[in-house]
Design brief:
The protein has 371 residues and is α/β, with parallel strands linked by helices. It is built from twelve helices and 18 strands. It has helices spanning 4-18, 54-62, 87-94, 113-120, 131-137, 139-147, 177-188, 197-203, 234-237, 255-261, 277-286, 298-306, and strands at 31-36, 39-45, 70-73, 98-101, 124-127, 151-158, 163-165, 192-196, 219-223, 245-249, 264-267, 270-271, 274-275, 291-294, 312-317, 327-328, 344-352, 355-362. Helix 3 (87-94) packs parallel to helix 4 (113-120).
């Protein structure tokens, strides 16, 4: 029977897991805490790149003290041989007496087998502690495994009248330094940053994490059906030697020239207004991505919303007005009635300098993760 101490230790494991967001794909961000006689003897999280796993790190820290301990793990320990042996076997070999997990791993290679292996070895297993919080934290991994696509967070920087740029296309900077810093922190908790071809042509963004002391960089993705992107800009120049640059395009695009520059090209089906959004996310999921931050523009954002592929929206609202002639934050959604509009639930609001950030998630769900 789980109690207050169990909840406290699982919350500790979730805190560890959260630190791995954006760093461990295609694996889930998992945390593990080992407790013996009320004392934490080992703790760990999935390491950058996905290995070693959290249980291995915690067991290495605990050493002989793991024998007779309780392991609190935010996801069912793996039961399959990959690049490392199964974590379930490692827990058995270490002599752990009890394992408490948040929920079962839906990966077909695991799917209850880890728990079964532990029980077969005589270890007490309890499942379901802080399950909602763990599922929210691991939502990107769970979506990739069950639906074949990553979690999508849509980021919008908007004026008071919901515009993203002047009529001439000027958008730097609608929001202030504190909001921009928050965006870089969001990039750090996602595997990849995605923009459409229009944004790449207008802004030539680097899509990197800067000025916050984080060296790891996300995959940079540009969705452009025809790959009609500037070949002499900063983004193109950084394709070789910089963080990974993936270009998602439609059939017939000049992909070879971009591969020669150092970019990875991903061909998907074309849609009415560019690449097909569902095909794009399926391709990104197949490559292992679990969390994608979409930073626009309006056409790409609208296509993802129309396809019901946005899981969370982070809106940065600035205290200026740009007028009806300015560019809207979203492209057409083709709505003729309110009931058809995509609807989201407010998760939280934060003041950032002179701007306001409000975060929304799909109605009826809570993601409960940073960024």
């Amino acid at each position: 029977m789980t109690g207050a101490d169990d909840r406290r230790h699982m919350a500790h494991a979730l805190t560890l897991a959260r630190r791995g967001l954006g760093q461990v794909w295609p694996n889930p961000a998992v945390g593990c805490v080992l407790v013996r006689e009320g004392r934490v003897v080992g703790r760990g999280r999935t390491q950058p790149g996905g290995r070693p796993h959290a249980e291995t790190v915690a067991l290495d820290m605990a050493g002989p003290a793991a024998r007779g301990a309780t392991a609190y793990v935010t996801l069912e320990p793996c039961a399959h041989h990959g690049q490392t042996p199964p974590c379930a076997d490692a827990l058995v070999a270490a002599g752990v007496a009890r394992v408490v997990t948040a929920h079962e791993d839906p990966d077909p290679r695991v799917a209850g087998r880890g728990h079964a292996r532990l029980r077969a070895a005589g270890i007490e297993v309890e499942v379901g502690l802080l399950e909602a919080e763990a599922r929210a934290l691991q939502a990107g991994f769970l979506l990739r495994v069950t639906q074949g696509r990553p979690l999508v967070t849509l980021k919008l920087a908007l004026s008071l009248d919901v515009r993203i740029a002047t009529a001439a296309g000027e958008s730097r900077w609608i929001t202030g330094p504190a909001a921009r810093r928050a965006v870089h922190l969001m990039r750090a908790t996602h595997d990849a940053v995605l923009v459409g071809g229009g944004t790449a042509r207008a802004d030539d963004p680097l899509l990197t994490i800067r000025d916050i002391g984080i060296a790891r960089q996300p995959v940079r993705i540009v969705a452009s059906a025809g790959l009609d992107l500037p070949a002499d800009g900063a983004l193109a120049a950084s394709a070789r030697g910089g963080p990974p640059l993936w270009l998602v395009h439609g059939p017939g695009a000049p992909a070879a020239s971009w591969r020669a520059r150092g970019a990875e090209t991903v061909e998907v089906a074309a849609g009415p207004e560019g690449v097909d959004p569902a095909a794009m996310l399926a391709a990104l999921g197949a490559r292992g991505l679990t969390r994608v931050l979409c930073e626009g523009g309006g056409t790409l954002a609208a296509s993802l919303l129309r396809a019901d592929l946005v899981d969370a929206i982070a809106v940065f609202s600035a205290g200026l007005a740009l007028g009806a002639e300015a560019r809207p934050g979203l492209g057409p959604l083709g709505l003729d009635r309110l009931a058809a509009a995509p609807r989201f639930a407010l998760e939280w609001v934060s003041v950032l300098g002179e701007d306001v950030m409000h975060r929304w998630t799909r109605t009826g769900t809570r993601l409960l993760h940073p960024g």
